[in-house]
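User:
Note these tokens:
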Amino acid sequence: MEKYGAGSIVVSDYDPSWPALFAQERVRIAQALGAFALAIEHVGSTAVPGLPSKPIIDLLVGVPSLEEAKERSIAPLEALGYIYMPDYASWLPGELFFRKGPPGPWTHHLHVTEPSHPRWEALVVFRDYLRAHPEAARAYADIKRGLAASSQDNIGAYRNGKTVFVQETTAKALAWHAAVRD
């Protein structure tokens, strides 16, 4: 069982300061990585106004090459307090994953990937879909709160419990996004 940080999983009510916390961190990352960071997005539940979440800011950083990112990004991000989690590569192929904050609870998750990687679009359109569809965001909130209560400190169970909803909603989001573009 993979334990969660420093105790039980907590899904907090939406905090209106989350976008500002993202904006502050975005500036720091942009300064650290310079032009190598092609884009920096706020993703995950803290990026959806009104959505309850674990109070962890998820950042998605687009880079031109993941292989080059291993050489150019790890040290500058570690200097900002991020901890590179290489063991997550098996769970998150095609990206570099970092955590920031005391050793649990974490305050930030950082995903570094190429914008052409399918996960980039999936994370962004999932966020945009939840922003545009409050009923889907409410359903997700209910699932997250139920899982937090039943999973205790088992982050694997919490994460896996969201999988079906996330996959189904991402499929809807991709179709919605394609229709909006046309």
Remarks:
- The chain has one domain: 18-181.
- The radius of gyration is 16 Å.
- The first strand starts at residue 39 and ends at 43.
- The mean pLDDT is 93.
